[in-house]
Write a structure and sequence with these properties.
Elements: E1 10-12, E2 20-23, E3 28-30, E4 36-37, E5 41-42, E6 49-57, E7 62-69, H1 70-78, E8 86-90, E9 103-107, H2 136-145, H3 164-167
């Protein structure tokens, strides 16, 4: 038996209140004589769930379809009050867990470490296989974190920094 705190709640989608409702667990349902769940697809580019919502355009009397991210529909409905500049974040780091209890608005997080190194991948099953040894991202981070005189020097392909004398050769004209 579910407790009242975990019970699924349904509210109208603010953009289409007459046609769709969204649940606190991240499900979208089309209203109508026979209510149906709207299928969700994983967006390959962002790793987020998205839905296609159709509506009747009263100006042209045609049916139009728009794509919306499920996490934003849930957040806009159940977590109002996002301030300017705040972004949507996931408590467990899984972009497919779009339940309202997993979402929160916060300032943009600044992190120099990619998701694979901070354990924020979408899930172990869908995470790309990592090559053996240190990844290129880890090499870049190690080069960033080591004590360098000049962090503005560019990185070599192996992740280490060029030295000042490697970038400028005073005898370059004689080598042409």
């Amino acid at each position: 038996m579910t407790s009242p705190d975990n019970a699924e709640q349904w509210r109208p989608v603010s953009e289409f209140p007459e046609a769709y409702v969204v649940s606190s667990l991240g499900r979208i349902r089309a209203k109508g004589p026979v209510p149906r769940l709207v299928s969700q697809r994983l967006d390959a580019r962002t790793g987020r769930l998205r839905v296609s919502l159709s509506f009747l355009d009263s100006y042209t009397d045609t049916v139009k379809t728009v794509q919306r991210f499920v996490d934003l529909l849930v957040a806009e409905t159940f977590l109002p009050g996002a301030k300017r500049g705040e972004l949507l974040h996931y408590r467990d780091g899984d972009k497919r867990n779009v339940a309202a209890s997993n979402l929160y608005w916060a300032a943009k997080q600044r992190s120099y470490k990619p998701a694979e190194l901070t354990k924020l991948t979408s899930s172990p099953a869908t995470a790309p296989a990592q090559p053996q040894g240190q990844t290129l991202a880890a090499k870049f981070i190690a080069a960033f974190e080591e004590d360098n005189d000049d962090p503005d020097l560019p990185l070599k392909p192996d992740g280490t920094r060029y030295k000042e004398d490697e970038l400028y050769d005073p005898d370059w004209r004689s080598k042409i």
